[in-house]
From TrEMBL:
It is an enzyme of class 3 (hydrolase). It is found in: Secreted. Probable carboxypeptidase. InterPro entries: AB_hydrolase_fold, Peptidase_S10, Ser_caboxypep_his_AS, Ser_caboxypep_ser_AS. It holds the Pfam family Peptidase_S10. This is Carboxypeptidase. Transmembrane segments: none annotated. GO terms for cellular component: extracellular region; vacuole. The keyword Signal applies. Keywords: Carboxypeptidase, Disulfide bond, Glycoprotein, Hydrolase, Protease, Secreted, Signal. One of its GO terms (biological process) is proteolysis. Belongs to the peptidase S10 family. Residues 1-21 form the signal peptide.
Amino acid sequence: MHSLPWKTMVMTVALLQVCFSGEVESSLSLSDKITELPGQPQVSFQQFSGYVNVDKKKQRALFYYFAEAEIDPASKPLVLWLNGGPGCSSLGVGAFSENGPFRPSGEILVRNEYSWNREANMLYLETPIGVGFSFTTDSSSYKAVDDKITGMDNLVFLQHWFVKFPQYINRDLFITGESYAGHYVPQLAELMIQFNKKEKLFNVKGIALGNPVLEFSTDFNSRAEFFWSHGLISDSTYRMFTSGCNYSRYVSEYYRGSVSSVCSIVMSQVNKETSRFVDKYDVTLDVCMSSVLSQSIVLNPKQVTERIDVCVEDETVNYLNRRDVQKALHARLVGVNRWAVCSNILDYELLNLEIPTISIVGSLVKAGFPVLVYSGDQDSVIPLTGSRTLVHGLAKGLGLNTTVPYRVWFEGKQVGGWTQVYGNILSFATIRGASHEAPFSQPERSLRLFKAFLEGRSLPEMF
Ligand SMILES: *[C@@H]1O[C@H](CO)[C@@H](O)[C@H](O)[C@H]1NC(C)=O
Ligand SMILES: *[C@@H]1O[C@H](CO)[C@@H](O)[C@H](O)[C@H]1NC(C)=O
């Protein structure tokens, strides 16, 4: 186990706070305070970013960005957001393209009107090591990083982060994320609950998962029907893609370096018909032309479950690679020349994809923790149908009856999506017209969903 200097450090902080009586903030967080991000509009909330060591000896350090709630942060919950990949950045994808307060646009940052820090104190973590600005000085640690290592690092990160921000220790804590975070989030919640048995530190109130990988075969095999029903593949190709070689079999063979000839034939037909000019993460959104070439990297092993609109990505890549921006963020580049959306140095144990996490979700629900699984309904990578099947199956297995029958929900005067709730604790919702990165393509609907989730309320039934 890791050595935990947490208790002593909290006491030190407490002492310091006595000296600075009246100071609400911990002095340790002050050096992480962001004075101003280059090009940002004036805002009323505070921002922090910097490093938290998760293993002093090896100099493994995880980078975070923290945007306090816009209004009355002391009354609002703490929300951790994690992007997937594995190996993609919660800073670049989550904060600067999806649900953070700003989006880069040329030289400046524009305000995201539907930022989740309207409702919560938002903490974005670049994890595991090797992602974004997170690093280790022992480069052999980038090898064979897996779900276990990531989960422990995330746990230690939060313990140590609380030393910097002791005012958040007892705050309601929600853990949220997307895509491969369907592994990270339940695994981290489980570790926290175990940790709490020794020492109550994490006031976990629920988890939310967007287009998550929860069970490899159900999630990946719902792709064929999604392609077919959206007209991306023909009837005959659909038949081949279900009975000749299904997608889970292909991916499984691919990551073992032994693609069979039948799978190779089926996949090349599927790829030919779907075309690289359609973004698999949003089958209806036009791709911007600058992104078209990059579409060919979709089958790169590191890219199987996570990619974002490349137009936004380009802006983010440019912005986060500016020296003045890195300085303002207290970020450093260690072992890499540039900040990248998805890590080029991390060597993740990709077969971990096949570990089911739906059972962990089940144990969380059973222990009384609310869970929301939501789906951007235009995503073909982790389609809504697979997630819906998994949530329904889980409810059935746990003996949870439907408390909100399948129905539409509203944002403004339009249908925001569909929802179903089981036992008042396990919820499923779609976000209409949303991509894999739902808060990017449907920010207003996503914020509505997020607010209902935090408040523990069902989604608006009327307008
Ligand atoms: C996918 O293919 C594998 C291997 O052929 C098979 O075992 C599995 O049942 C198939 N799954 C679906 C959903 O068709
Ligand atoms: C679920 O519904 C069934 C049938 O109406 C009922 O017998 C059962 O007690 C319900 N379970 C719960 C947990 O409410």
